[in-house]
Design a protein that fits this description.
The chain is of the alpha+beta class. It is built from 8 helices and 14 strands.
Length: 286
């Protein structure tokens, strides 16, 4: 187990943001021209932009915190026996939304999270095309900072709008399971968005509910976890437990919900979970 000196999380924000923005510039350089697409072993796509951003972030974080291991979507090949000994690690998705990148939808992000004992304690999400960086650290609040401008505090919507503002990808919205769930919720307005930006919209109060039914990697949600939580929102599994990181042999998340209004039991609308109405939610306090 590596020994990590005490960390000042707030002091890490600016250098990590600089690393993310440099990775974003590498991504945009490739985005501006022609690029090739390869297929990984799990049949997901990868481009030279994924690899360029990975290399940039790996070099930057290694220089910044040489004692903290880095687990990236583009370099996940550590055994659980090895990584289970890590108290600290960086969890990185160098280009979250590769399919959106390939479609040139602009809806892709750089995700960087710092994990301590299975909990996200610092996170940053940068959409290179839009330039506004979302970040948070434990006890420091959640923030949105446009490039070259002052950061602004963001907060989730603690009272749900009517109709409910539901955010998901367009492909997820068309699935039978999500349609069944939303049919039980009732009137809602759908916001279609890709990648980690969906969680950012929850964190800044621009959406009420992000239901995700289907596999995602831990690097997809780790940065969003702390950003949503520090914005006084929640990102939980279907039993309302916060997601945990690097705690299991596989790096795949359970189904989850991200939301701001904790007075509403969002599990009531899950067809396979039957709960009496009016039960109390035992959510972590912020």
């Amino acid at each position: 187990m590596s020994v990590v000196p005490p960390l000042d999380l707030a002091a890490l924000v600016d250098p990590v943001q600089a690393i993310a923005r440099e990775a974003g510039r590498r991504i945009l350089d490739i985005y501006a021209g022609a690029f090739s697409v390869a297929e990984k072993a799990d049949q997901s796509p990868v481009t030279e932009a994924d690899l360029a951003a990975h290399g940039c972030i790996l070099r930057g974080l290694t220089a910044l915190t040489p004692g903290i291991p880095i687990l990236s979507e583009e370099a996940p090949d550590f055994s659980f026996a090895e990584r289970s000994r890590w108290e600290w690690l960086w969890l990185v998705d160098p280009l979250d939304g590769t399919r959106e990148f390939i479609k040139r939808s602009d809806q892709f992000t750089v995700n960087i999270a710092l994990i301590h004992r299975h909990e996200a304690v610092l996170g940053l999400i940068l959409p290179p095309v839009y330039g506004a960086c979302y970040y948070a650290w434990r006890g420091g609040g959640a923030w949105r900072q446009p490039d070259g401008q002052a950061a602004q505090r963001i907060r989730a919507a603690r009272v749900c709008h009517y109709p409910v503002r539901v955010i998901s990808s367009q492909s997820s919205y068309r699935t039978r399971r999500l349609q069944d769930y939303l049919g039980l919720i009732g009137p809602h307005r759908h916001i279609a968005l890709g990648g980690a930006l969906k969680s950012c919209r929850i964190a800044e109060g621009a959406a009420d509910l992000y239901p995700r039914f289907g596999p995602t990697g831990e690097w997809d949600t780790a940065a969003a976890q702390i950003i949503v939580e520090e914005a006084d929102g929640y990102l939980t599994d279907l039993q309302f437990r916060p997601l945990r990181y690097n705690a299991r042999p596989i790096l795949i998340n359970p189904d989850f919900l991200a939301f701001g209004d904790a007075t509403r039991d969002w599990s009531l609308y899950l067809p396979h979970l039957s709960h009496p109405r009016g039960r109390s939610l035992f959510l972590p306090s912020h």
